[in-house]
Write a structure and sequence with these properties.
- With 619 residues, the chain is of the alpha/beta class.
- It has three domains: 118 residues, no CATH class; 239 residues, FAD/NAD(P)-binding domain, CATH 3.50.50.60; 140 residues, FAD/NAD(P)-binding domain, CATH 3.50.50.
- The chain is built from 19 helices and 21 strands.
- The strands form six sheets. A five-stranded parallel sheet has the order 3-2-1-7-19, covered by helices on one side.
- Strand 9, helix 10 and strand 10 form a beta-alpha-beta unit.
- Helix 1 crosses helix 11.
- It is globular.
């Protein structure tokens, strides 16, 4: 797979009719802004260019002129004021100025800051960093450390990079964030085959990134870290599964939240005589053809795999505890249109503005819909906008279901946003209405040797049980044994209530940094890659301060961290996912939301732009 470079596009060699054909697939808002940035012709702001035919003709003239050498691209990056005007025009005038720097960074419209050049290479070379995990965030960390000339080692428990995209290989596995946004801002891929690509293409992307940046010499594969102990004076000792020990000045945990599969706590599960599979540990050697299959769970994994396996199995019984809300996404399985892909690859700035469109469309505007109106009386919605969305989504679901008994099972009874909503193009409900698929909502009593028995006395037989039951989400960094300052164990320090300042640093654990840590999961919009880039930027800022100030260690002040936790908890209680009646993996056993970021994306970007030295204890 080829990895592209922002603000660089391929040569235009196509004929005029071929270019015109490609323009028929254009995303016209992105096309409009690309023409503006190429030409800096402010007459293009005129309302007449809302006419897509006029815009298409203008684009054809501009692109053919570029091809023929009669026009050049304005390569000077525009200033923030001009970009803000463009954003306002594209988004209908609702882009606050505070978002502009964040968006320009995300769109690669800012010059990179090579901060490390101000620090002598010899100084940088004295800091040694361990990165645990070679998934999306671990790869990102390795790239930034390599750019900065800071020595590092990546420990990866698997035989290949990719993290969740290496481990999850169940049928139908794909991303649920638009692909042209679900990639590093500095390393886009203009050649995604689908708008929401499947697992194999995503894995290929991360493998290509690792190879392009020549990271493999730094990665120790099949090498799980079992423990890390803070020795003192800015030094950690790591131990791997083979007993090898090595010392580092800092640790970056890039193991993620959804890393260790969780089997359901159901009596008799180990007694089942057939085959049991967790969706995150898929067995390609198990042929489901002609088999009776039970799927436990109706979350994101089940939602993707059930329509696939229903075409093979003799019968599929889907066991549901609570129904998911469905987000209408007609293009969820669609290929990228050929003309759109050509424009991404060849028209300068088109990809930048398409990324902005995707980001802004799924940015912070949804958060008010997920925020509780304390005067609201209903339990299945939390405010007027949430109720209106509930009604529209209920109508969407009802329009696909032609069985009253099934319809009662698939309409959730909790507010939209209380649990992870799922992108839908109709395949889920179509699958549930197949003759060989049943949706069962009875409580499970136990698993027997040949199937499942329910609390109402009914039972079903099975050849295969698939547990689409998620992960040990509240066991951050588990099962590693992390021992911090003064011998305190992270497991004891956290218990079942993990907390970290900005989701990244932990009091009493100097120079330990978490990626995708507590309270950094995104529900209302954005991409986990965006959040990871924010976090890695913050970590690099912390390491920079260590290098420039001659310090050995840093850890957040307890009072600063506690104030942050209180602010996060208060806000989470006022979100749909924090309502007492909502049960989900977002919460721990005590009902506290340990996973989600309750504020705006721009707030997190601002908070992680640079560490505040006053927030930390330096030694």
């Amino acid at each position: 797979m080829h990895i592209d470079t922002p603000n660089q596009t391929g040569a235009i060699t196509e004929t005029t009719p071929e270019i015109d054909l490609a323009l028929g697939d254009a995303h016209f808002p992105s096309l409009h802004m690309a023409l503006l940035q190429i030409t800096r012709d402010e007459s293009l702001f005129h309302e007449q260019y809302a006419d897509t035919e006029l815009l298409r003709r203008t684009a054809l003239d501009t692109i053919t002129a570029l091809r023929d050498g009669k026009r050049t691209v304005n390569t000077e990056l525009p200033d923030a004021g001009f970009v803000h005007t463009m954003m306002q025009h594209m988004a209908g005038g609702n882009v606050p100025e505070e978002y502009v720097p964040m968006m320009m960074q995300e769109m690669s419209l800012l010059e990179p800051d090579p901060w490390y050049e101000d620090i002598p290479a010899e100084t940088r070379g004295k800091l040694k960093v361990a990165v645990i995990g070679a998934g999306m965030s671990g790869i990102l960390t390795a790239i930034r450390l390599q750019e900065a000339g800071i020595p590092f080692v990546v420990f990866e428990k698997n035989s290949e990079v990719g993290g969740t995209w290496f481990e999850n290989s169940y049928p139908g596995c794909r991303v649920d964030v638009p692909n042209h946004f679900y990639c590093y801002s500095f390393a886009p891929n203009y050649s995604w085959s689908s708008h929401f690509s499947k697992r194999d293409e995503l894995l290929d992307y991360f493998i290509a990134i690792v190879d392009q940046y020549d990271l493999r010499p730094h990665i120790h594969f099949n090498n799980d870290v079992t423990s890390a102990e803070y020795v003192d004076d800015g030094c950690w000792q790591l131990t791997t599964q083979d007993g090898t020990t090595e010392q580092f000045n800092a640790i970056v945990s890039a193991v993620g939240q959804l890393n260790r599969p969780k089997l359901p706590d159901i009596a008799g599960l180990n007694d089942f005589a057939g085959t049991t599979i967790h969706s995150a540990q898929w067995r390609s050697d198990v042929d489901l053809t002609g088999k009776k299959v039970v799927v436990i769970g109706t979350g994101a994994s089940a939602f993707q795999l059930v329509p696939e396996i229903a075409e093979q199995a003799e019968h599929v019984s889907v066991l549901q505890r609570s129904a998911p809300w469905l987000m209408p996404t007609p293009d969820y399985h669609d290929a990228v249109e050929p003309g759109h892909q050509w424009l991404l690859q060849h028209l300068p700035y088109y990809a930048n503005w398409y990324r902005f469109w995707l980001f802004w469309s799924g940015c912070d505007s949804f958060l008010p819909t997920l925020t509780v109106d304390l005067a609201w009386q209903r339990t299945d919605s939390i405010n007027a906008a949430n109720e209106a969305l509930r009604q529209r989504t209920t109508e969407y679901i009802s329009g696909q279901v032609h069985n009253d008994a099934l319809l009662k099972k698939v309409i959730p009874d909790y507010p939209i946003g209380g649990k992870r909503p799922l992108r839908d193009n109709g395949m889920w409900l179509t699958a549930l209405q197949r003759d060989n698929v049943d949706l069962i909502t009875h409580s499970i009593r136990k698993v027997t040797q040949d199937g499942v028995t329910f609390e109402n006395g009914e039972s079903i037989t099975a050849d295969v049980i698939i547990c689409a039951t998620g992960f040990q989400a509240d066991h951050f960094l588990w099962p590693m044994n992390i021992v911090g300052r003064d011998g305190i164990k992270l497991d004891d320090f956290w218990g079942s209530n993990p907390k970290a300042y900005l989701g990244i640093t932990v009091p009493q654990f100097p120079n330990l940094f978490c990626l995708y840590g507590p309270n950094t999961n995104l529900v209302h919009g954005g991409s986990i890659i965006f959040h990871s880039e924010c976090q890695v930027n913050y970590i690099m800022g912390c390491l920079t301060t260590l290098l420039t100030e001659g310090q050995r260690s840093l850890e957040p002040r307890s009072e600063v961290a506690e104030a942050f936790y209180d602010r996060v908890d208060e806000a989470n209680q006022q979100r749909a996912w924090g309502r007492p009646q909502v049960k989900s993996w977002y919460k721990n056993s005590e009902g506290r939301v340990t996973q989600n970021w309750p504020f705006r994306l721009v707030d997190y970007w601002r908070d992680t732009k640079a560490p505040d030295a006053k927030d930390f204890i330096w030694r």
